Amino acid sequence: MKSNKNINQKNSIFKNWLVILVAILFIALPFIINAYWIDVLFFFGIYALLGLSLNIVLGEVGLFDLGHMGFMAIGAYTTAILNTSFGIPIIILLPISAIAAGAFAWLVCSPIIHLKGDYLCIVTIGMGEIVRLTLNNNPFGITGGSNGVFGIDFPSLGSIFVVDNSTKFYYYIWLIVGLTIVGLVNLQRSRIGRAWNCIREDEVAAESTGIDVRSYKLLAFLLGAGLAGVAGNIYATKLMIVSPESFSFMESCMLFCIVLIGGMGSIPGVLIGAAAISLFPEVFRTFAQYRMLIFGVAMVIMMIFRPGGIWPRKRGALKFESLLIKAGEENG
Amino acid sequence: MAKDNNNIATMIRSKQENKETDKTNKVVLETDKLTKKFGGLIAVNNFDLKVSQGQISSLIGPNGAGKTTVFNVVTGIYKADSGKVLFQGEDLAGKKPHQIIKKGIARTFQNIRLFSNMTCLENVMAGQHCRSREGTWSSILQTPGQRKEELEIKKNAEDRLKQVGLWRWRDELAKNIAYGNQRMLEIGRALASNPDLLILDEPSSGLNDKESEDLIVFLKSLVKENLTILLIEHDMNVVMGISHWVTVMDEGKKIAEGLPEDIYTNPQVIEAYLGKDEEEEE
Amino acid sequence: MKSKKFMLIVSVLVLVLGIASFGVMAADKLPVVIGLQGPITGPYAVEGEMAKQSVEIAAQMINDKGGILGGRMIEIRVADDACQPKAGALAAMKLITQKDVVAAIQTYGSFVVLPASDVYEKFKKVNIAYGATITDLTERGLKYFFRTCGRTDTQAKFFADKVVPYFNAKKIAIMNNNTSFSVGLAEETRAALKSRIDAGEVEIVYFDAINPEETDFTVPLTKLRETNPDVFYYTGHFPEAGLIIRQAREIGIEAIFVGGDAVVNEDFINIAGIEYAKGVYQTQEALIEYFTNPEAMAFKEAYKAKYNTLPSSPWSVYAADALCVLAEAIDKSGSTDSDVIADYLRNKMENFPSITGPVGFDEIGDRVGSSINLYVVNADGSSSICDTK
Amino acid sequence: MKIVLEQLLNGLTIGSFYALIALGYSMVYGVMKLINFAHGDLFALGSYLGYTLLVFGSSYATVTFGIWGGMIAAMLIAAIGIGIAGTLIERIAYRPIYSVGRLPAVVSALGASIVIQNGIMVIWGPRPQAYSSQVVPSVMLNIGGIKITLMQIVVLIISFILMGLLFYIVQKTTFGAAIRACALDRSTAALMGINIETIIFFIFALGPALGGMAGVMVGMYYRKISFVMGWNYGLKAFTATILGGIGNIPGAMIGGLLLGVLEMLGSVYISTAYKDVFVFLVLILVLIFRPTGLLGEKIAEKV
Predict the structure, then answer these.
(1) Are residues C280 and C195 part of one domain?
(2) Residues of chain A found within 8 Å of residue B130, distances taken between Cβ atoms
(3) A133/D273 CB distance under 8 A
(4) Which of A118, C311, D205, D254 ranks highest by number of CB atoms within 10 Å?
C-alpha cells in the first residue's frame, strides 16, 4: 500500500461522491420498486443496523459474540411488553429499548469479559440461548411464550409523524442506519475507536499503553447491545409481533457472517455483508429448497476467494479520513 | 571480542565525563523486597531496585534471571507475591497497567508488541490515550472539544514520529515497516504518553550496529529532557555506553549494583554474566 | 482497487433493481392466481411441502372440472416463509405485490400467521390460514382473515367434556412442546377442565413442557410416571410424540396416551414403532382417512395417484380446503375483488361441501361446523373413530 | 433411589453421545484452532447414512452378520463415509484459508454446515425419518427394579469402547503423541519431523467418523432422525467441549458425560423447560471461575 498523497486525495473525493450517489439512490429507490422490495430493503436495513452493532464488538474490538440476537431480543421484548401492557409510545421506547439492552449486556458481560476468544464465544452463545429459551418459557406470563407478544403499535409522534406503511418504515430504518453510520464513523476516528482497535490488535500492549481494556470491552458490548436494542425496537414495530423464533442462534451466526463477509471493522463492508445476507435468500427464493444449499456454497466460496471480506477496512489513510476535521490537516 | 572491550572502555570514559552533569539523586522508582513466583519457580526473589531521577539505569543479567518479570511487576502486568513497588513515593500495589502508565511509567516490550494493523501514526496516537479524556458521547457527536483534542493528539503524535525518525512511514501499517523502525515506533508510542520513567526491554535487540548507535544517541537526548530511563539490555556496548547505574540480577536475586565501570570489573558479575553468557548475546 | 469496489456496488444495485422489476411484471389475464404461503425451507419444511402438494392436487381437481369463472384455470403461486415471522411478513408482501394474486392461503405456525395476516389485512387481501389454531388469531377483528382449521379451545373443550368422561379418568397429565399451538392447546385444556377440577372430579397431576428439538424425554417422563396418571394428554407434534410414546412405555408408563391433533400420522407410527403406536388415541377434527364424502374420496384418490401415500400432516388438507373454499367464493361471487370474496366467505357461504366436510365461516372468520372426534390407532396402523357420544 | 439411578443412566447415555461428538470438535480445535461448525451436521449425515444402510442393506447384513453384526457393519460403513466427508470438507472449505487467520474459517464452516444440513433435506426430504423397529431390537430389561433398554446398554458400551480406544490412541501411541505435539505447537512439531498433513487428515477423518458412529447410534437408540438434529446436538457437544476445556481430549469426554448428567439434573430438579438455561448457566459459571474449562490448562500469558 503506497501512501501517496495525491492518490489518497483523489480517493477521498471519489469516496464522497460514492457516498452521495448511494444516498441519493437509497432516497429514490422507493419510487422505483414495488412494496415487496421496499420491505426487503427494510429488512436489509435491520440487518445493516444489527451488523453495525455487532461490528462494534466483533469488528472493532475483536470479541467473538455469537449471541448478539439476545440483545436484540431484549430490545424487542422491552418495546413489545411496555407498549402492549402500558401503552407507552414506541418512540419513547426506542431509547428505552437501547438502554435496556445495553444494561443487560453490561450486567451479563461484566463477569465474563475477561474470557478469551472461543471461551467468550461459547459464553455469548449460551447467553443468547438463555435469553431465547427464557422468553420461550413465558416467565411470569409476560413474554407470551412461543406465541410472543403481539399487537404492537406503529412508531408515531402525535398525528403528524406516523410510520405506518412500507415506504415510511423504509425511510425510518435507513434514517437511523444513516445516523448510526455517522456516529460510528466519528467513533472510529476518535480515541475510543482507536482504543478498541488496539485491544483487537494486542490486548497486553493496549493495557500497557494506558487503555483500560476491561472498560473498553464493556463499552463495546454496551454500545453494540444498545444498537441491537434499537434494531429490536424497530423490528418489533414493523412486524407488530415479537416471538422467540426470530432470535435464534442461527440468526446470530448470520450476523457474524455479515461482519466477516463484509470485512472486519469496515462500515461499508458491513452494509455489503448485510445486503448479501438479507437479499441473497430473497433473490434465490425461487430455488425453493435449493436456496439455502446455494447460500452455504456461496459462503464457502466467498471466504476462499476473499477471506478478508468484500470491502475490508483500509488503514493508512488517516489523512483524508477526516470529513469533518479539516483544519491543520495537510501540514503536520 | 577484544575490540568490543576496547569499545566499551572508551564508552565508560566518555561516561565519566558526563558524570558531572548528573542531576540530583532523587529516587523515582524503587522496589522493596519484590518477590514473584510462578508455581514452584521463584522468578524474582526479594529484589531491590532503585532508579534515580534523570538517569539511565540498566538491569542486566543472564537469560532467565527474572529481568522481564521485574518489569512486568512494575508495570502491573503481574501481581507481586510480596514486596512493594514505589513510584515517586507511591505504592503501585494493585494498580492495573493502564493506571500505572497514567502515573508516568511507560514501557516497551522485549518482542515488540505494536498494533500491527494500524498505521504508525495511529500507534503513536494510541500512546496518548491516557493523556486524553474525551468520552464516548462527545466522540460520537464530534463536539468541538473532542475535535480540538483529537487535533492535539494528532499534532503531538506527528511530533513524536518526527522525533523517532519515522515521519515518512506515518501512514504505513506498523507491521509493514522494518524491524529497527518497529523498535523506534514502540519507543515513540511509549513516549507519547509523556512518561516520567521509560522502561525499555532490550531496545537494541535485533538492531544493527548503526541503529544501535543511533539508539544510544537518541536515549541520551531523552535524558537531557529530564526523562528517567530503565532498561534491560544484553548489548554491553549499549549498557556501558549510556548507563549511569547498573543493577545485575541472577536467578531472581540482585547480585551487584554500581557504576558501569565497577560492574564491568566486578568478578561476581563477570562470572555470572559476562563470563558465561558472552557468547549467548542475541 | 477503488473502481473494482465501485463496480461491485453498481452491480449489486443493478441486481437489486433488475430483480425488483420482475416483481412488477404485467399480470397474465387468463389464470386465477392463488398464493400459497408456507414453510418450504427451514425446520418445518415438511409442512410446507405437503401443503404445496395438497393445494396443487386440489387445484388440479378444480381445473380438471373446467376451472372457475367460466373456464379460467387456477394457478398456485408459492411463497416461502421458512417458518419465521420476519420471512412470513416478507412472503405475504411478496404475494401481495404480485398484482395478479387474488387471495392467499397462508401458513403453518401461529407466530408466522400473526404478522403475515396483519400484512394481508393492511393490503386488503383475503387470506385463509390452514395451520394456525391459537384462539387469539381470529379475535383481533380482522376483515380479510379466515381459517379452515379449528381453534384450540374447541379441541380443549372436546377433551374436557368428552374424552375425560369416556375414559373415566381422574388423574390427568398434560404435556406440551412449548410451541405456540401446543402451549395453547394445553392451557385451553386446563382451562376447560377447571370446573371439573373445582368440583373435585379430576385432577391435573402433571403439567409441563418439553423442548421438541430434543430426542431424550426420559427425565420428564419419569417425573410424569411418578404422578401415576390415568390419561396422558400430549399436545405437541408428531416428530417428538413418536419418541415420547415409546420412551414412556419403555420406562413403564401405562397411562392411556391421547395426542392432540398434530400427533398421529404415518411418521408418528414409524418413529414410535407399531408396537407402541397401537392403542394411542388422538383428538382430531379431520383425519383425511375417515372422510367418506365424495370430495374427500376424490382428493385422496388424486393424492395417492400422484404421491403414492396420503399427506402425513393433518394441516395440509386444510390448505386444500382453503383452496376449494376460495375457488368456490370467487366462482360464485363472480369477482376477484377482495371485499366481494371476503363478504361471500363471511356471509354467503354455508355448508359448502369441501374436502373436510361442510365449510362455513362465522363473523370473526372461524370455521363453523367442524366436528372433533377421538380416534384410536389400530394394530395395522389404521385408525378408527371412538364413540364418545 | 431407583429413579435417580435410572436418570443417571439416561444422563450418561445422552452424555456419551455428546462426548463422542465433542471429541471431534476438540481434536480439530486442538490441532487447527478451528471450530468446525459443520461437525454437528456431519453427525446428522452419519445418522442418515446409517438409516439408508439399515433400510437397504439390512436384509443382506442381517443374514450375513446377524442383527447386531448388521448394526455394527452399518456403523462402520457410516464411520468411513463420514470420515471421508470430513476430510473432503477440510480440503474444500478450510484448507484454502488456513493461512489468513481463524475468522474466515468460521464463516466457511458455517457455510459448510448449511450445505450439509440442506443437502440432507434435499436428498432425504424434510420429513423426519425413523429407523425401522425391524432392524433395531427393542428389548426392555429390568435390573433390580431399574428399567433399562438393551439398546441403552449397547450404546453405553460401544461409546465407552470408542472413547477408550481414542484415549489409548492419543495418549499411548506415537501417533497420538504427534497429535498432542501438534496441538501444543504446530510449527515446532513440524520441525520435529511430524507430518502435519497426515495429522490434519487424520483428525478430520477420525473426529467426524466418531460423530458419524454417534449418529447411527442416536438413530438406533431414539429411532427418529431429522435434518436439523445436527445443529442441536452440535451446539450441545460444542458446549461440552468448552466445558471440558477445548482441545483437551479427556476434557471432551468428561465434558460430554457431565453435560448429559447436568441436563438430567436440570430437568429433574428445576424444570424441563428451563433445563438448557440451567446447563448454559452452569457453563458460564464454570468459565467465570475456570476460564479455560474444567481440564483446560491455565494459559500463562507470555509477555
Answers:
(1) yes
(2) 209-211
(3) yes
(4) C311
Query: What domains appear along chain A, each with residue ranges and CATH number?
Result: 5-321 (1.10.3470)
CA nearest to B110 within chain D: D303
Helix, strand, or coil (residue B85): strand
Chain B residue numbers with beta carbons less than 8 Å from the beta carbon of A212 are 96, 98
Q: Tell if the CB–CB gap between B72 and D300 is shorter than 8 Å.
A: no
A129 touches chain D (CB under 8 A): yes
What's the gap in Å between the CA of B69 and the closest CA on chain D? Answer: 9
pLDDT tens by residue, chain A, 332 residues: 334 444 444 455 566 788 888 888 888 888 887 778 888 889 899 999 999 999 999 989 988 888 999 999 999 999 999 998 888 888 889 999 999 999 999 999 999 888 887 788 888 988 998 999 899 888 888 888 777 888 888 888 777 777 777 888 889 899 999 999 999 998 988 899 999 999 998 888 999 998 999 999 999 999 999 999 999 999 998 888 888 888 888 888 888 888 888 888 888 889 999 998 888 877 776 676 677 788 888 888 888 888 878 888 776 544 433 333 333 333 33
CA-based nearest residue in chain D for residue B68: D303
DSSP classification of residue D37:
T
Chains that contact D by 3+ CB pairs under 8 Å? A, B, C
Residue C72 DSSP label: B
Which residues in A lie closer than 8 A to residue B141 (C-beta atoms)? 183, 186
According to CATH, the superfamily of the domain at B2-104+195-280 is: P-loop containing nucleotide triphosphate hydrolases (3.40.50.300)
Contact indicator for A126, D283 with CB cutoff of 8 Å: yes
Q: List CB contacts (< 8 A) between A138 and chain C.
A: 183
Which cell goes with C355? 374436502
Number of domains in chain C: 2
Letter string b/e over residues A104-118, b meaning 16 or more CB atoms within 10 A of that residue's CB: bbbebbeebbebeeb
Sorted by sequence, the CB contacts under 8 Å of residue B213 that are 6+ apart come out as: none
Q: Would the CB atoms of C90 and A310 count as touching at under 8 Å?
A: no
Q: Which of C10, C25, C52, C97 to mutate to test the interface with A (most CBs of A within 10 A)?
A: C97
**Domain extents in chain B:** 2-104+195-280, 119-194
Single out the residue of C280, C224, C211, C214 nearest to residue C253, CA to CA. Answer: C224
Non-local CB neighbours of C319 within 8 Å, separated by 6+ positions: C36, C38, C51, C54, C55, C105, C130, C131, C148
Partners of residue D122 in chain C, C-beta under 8 Å = none
Q: Which domains does chain D carry?
A: 10-258 (1.10.3470)
D284 touches chain B (CB under 8 A): no
CA dist A42 and A34 (Å) reads: 12
